[in-house]
Amino acid sequence: MTETLLDDATQGRVVAAYLKSHPHFLSDYPELAAQLTLPREKGSVASLAMYQLQSLRDKNAELERRLADLIAIAADNEKLMERVHALTVALLRANTVEVTARSVVARLSADFHTDQVQLLLFGNQPELPRAPWLQLVPGGGAELPEFADFLQQHEPVSGRLSPQKLQRLFGDDADHVHSAAVMQLDHTGMLAIGSRDPDRFQPGMGTLFLKMIAATVTAALARARDVA
């Protein structure tokens, strides 16, 4: 009740006295500094004006940093899209399962700058040659107990895999793989990409492009079998 009876001048003096006794008030409530109107003449308020200016500069710098990050992400995504497109075109030219498999590994190794690529194909594949990048799994997923949960989820995984999974995928080269991405090719098999860089593939990374690659390879292998 008493507060409502105070005139504007008295309230102003109360506020001024409070601010004087709490010089760091604006540091705790920085949004208020940007809303204050300052007199144009020079005086002791110049420091507050500088504070407002610095606050706006900091906000602009943060917005510019975020914009630069978005631009960089967009540029990276554009490059990935171009590589996925090149992979798709190469697979469209393949007319046999062997050529399709070789094209997959060659493109992923060259265009995506990967250190290791492993293609695991389920079932009997007598027409395919022996190759260090190819694993034939006649019994299908049942022969891969390490990946039982993965094969049921139908989602790509990326990050640092367990030693058992790395050994099953990359064999003697497992010690050189510190992060990997693994994709399921429906009931056809699995595709694994390994990197020496532990941060190349991370659990939190988006899986959109991995899904696109998996769908493209799956369709290309099915098409090659139909043509044969």
Q: What do these coordinates show?
A:
The protein has 228 residues and is of the alpha+beta class. The chain contains nine helices and five strands. Strands 2-1-5-4-3 form a five-stranded mixed β-sheet, covered by helices on one side. Helix 5 packs antiparallel against helix 6 and helix 6 packs antiparallel against helix 9. It is elongated.
Question: How is the topology of this model organized?
Answer:
Blueprint: H1 2-5, H2 8-21, H3 25-28, H4 30-33, H5 46-93, H6 97-110, E1 116-122, E2 134-137, H7 148-153, E3 157-159, H8 163-170, E4 179-185, E5 189-195, H9 208-227
Parallel strand pairs: 1-2
Antiparallel strand pairs: 1-5, 3-4, 4-5
Helix pairs in contact: 5-6, 5-9, 6-9
